[in-house]
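Please describe what follows:
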Amino acid sequence: MKTANSPKRISRNLDNSDDTTTKVFHVFQAFLNGWSGHRFNAERELHDHCLHSTVSIIEKKYQVTIHRKWVTVRGYNNTPTRVKVYWLSRENQFRFLSNLRNGA
């Protein structure tokens, strides 16, 4: 899984938004920069405690599809734990950025 790139990389493209300091915006920037991960990665890397809720908000607010699949990771006491891995496809990244540049 990729780790989050600097969210500042795309922030200048989204500066017209009035919510550039929110958790949702920060997580969306990470997805646009190629981040993928599950709830435990999001907690450590993005400081998001409820990734599933944030993903839902991003999909509705920015009209993109965040892909997901179930995986098993080691949880508490190395117990197998099922979590979903989330990512934004390249196609959705380009579509969103293209629409942003074109004023859509």
In short: Residues 3-13 have pLDDT under 50 and may be disordered. The first helix runs from residue 8 to 11. The first strand starts at residue 36 and ends at 37. The chain has one domain: 8-101.
